[in-house]
Amino acid sequence: MPNQEFLSLLKDVGALREGHFQLASGRHSAHYVQVAQLSQYPAKLQPLLKGAKADIDALGEIDSVFFPAIGALPVGQLLGLALEKRAFFAERNKDNEMELRRGFEIKPGEKLLLAEDVITTGGTLKEIVKMVDAAGAEVVGVFCIINRSGKDTWQGYPLISLLELNFPTYAPEDVPPELAAIPVYRPGTKTV
Question: Which fold has domain 3-180?
């Protein structure tokens, strides 16, 4: 889907928002993409994920799709369906740390595609990569719906996205006065 068409879809479903947001990375932005607004329409998201299959297949062998809950949950599940692969997730415990629960496990030697809804810095992905490394598995690449990082790789891994958005972000001490004048909203589930 062409970028302009995808942006229109995001606006139509209420996923592209404007205001003052503190992102999971701790940085501030005047724009936020709430992919969950798109995920509530799986019939709209699923064809987009199937459309990325050729790029994902070019990464080589993939055994499973692994992702952090909760924002990436619908994305990872639908991506697993599109690729016909096992899809499982890590979630935060009471200490705000990512862990495997529900009987999920990473198998030694398993080739994993990491999935995320939006990547800005990839802080949550760094947490799950530690889990992959500890299990003796391998990350073959990363997939996201929205890439805000401005890069085509993440931590040296190939990064495949449906859309690249490069809205400016600001450190808390560098928020412009016009943005600071708007009440800040903290979307997402990760505690900064």
Answer: Rossmann fold (3.40.50)
